[in-house]
Predict the structure.
Amino acid sequence: MVDIRVAPLGTNPREFLNLVDYLYQSDPHYVRPLDFDLSARLNPKKNPFFEHGEGVMLLARKNGRVVGRMTAQIDREHLARYQDATGFFGFFDTTNDQDVASALLREGERWLRAKGMKRALGPMSLSINEEMGCLVEGFDTPPYLMMPHHLPYQGALIEGAGYTKTKDVYAWHYKVGPLNSRVKKAMTDVLAMPEITVRPVNKKRLEDDVQIVVDIFNDAWGENWGFVPFTRNEVKKMAEDFQLILEPELTRIVYVNGEPAAMAIGVPNLNEAARDLGGSLFPTGAAKLLWRLKVEGTKSARLVLLGIKKKVRTQRKYAALALYLYGAMNEAGRSLGIEEGELSWTLEDNGPVNAGVRMMGAEIYKRYRVYERAL
């Protein structure tokens, strides 16, 4: 028999965090997220998501052992924007046991129904602006920073509980190297335009620059499936989080006639540096992490944000701007000794963006699936 225990988010999450050591003990590609970061994200006192969201943690036990975990949550920003009575589940990890997976999801659905929800969507941990989807292809490589990882059976268990596919998103693998002639021309043409200026993010005014980046993102991605804008306090928290990992050389803010118009943000792949830390910074993990990030440097990086404001994107004159940004990220990576990267994530039906990524020579190597079920 499966026993499900429900607790408010912010409750001591130790069992919730430690379950992954049991589930993924035979998976050489799993990278445990840093406990201090995940604990803070699950804590309503520390995560600004909870200024517009609420949720619970669920733990499944069978024969006395914790065998599954999940969150159930609602996002009032999403509800205000879409008016669709949709709630979410996330952080979904279980043993290969349909009874466990179904019991967790049924209990989460009961909580969502009590909040007036009519549809469950996930996995999203905790929102579309964090980890999204269940890994369904690409189990043979480690996940990059802030990307989920699952065992091959997990998606089938979600489907076995009555959920169906809503959307797939792609992660693209990219080898840093010489640019092709088309990208070189795009970079030359863009930089030759007198009205265009380009600079990296300035860490001395990081919160202001993150706000600029988010403003561009909100404009560029506002019509995409599931989009929810960042709040002011989420921007502030993002700036704080970037202090450790941001490498300004891997960033670009593009101005057109003095107005912010486009941006690209890459970050060193923290998972590469933290892969053997087991989620802990103590007693020596913090020193190892700082040395690997700041002295040795990582050999991989993730392109986490790229966007061009609509009024610029729709002008034929600036058609090369996306290729310029991709090329600039490639060249920055080369200068830092980065050998490969991940561009993630993109929607499966975003044809223009996917075409641009393919043009850079990237290949889809992971696929994540979002599921839904009527309540």
The first strand starts at residue 2 and ends at 8. The chain is about 35% helix and 30% strand. The radius of gyration is 21 Å. The mean pLDDT is 96.
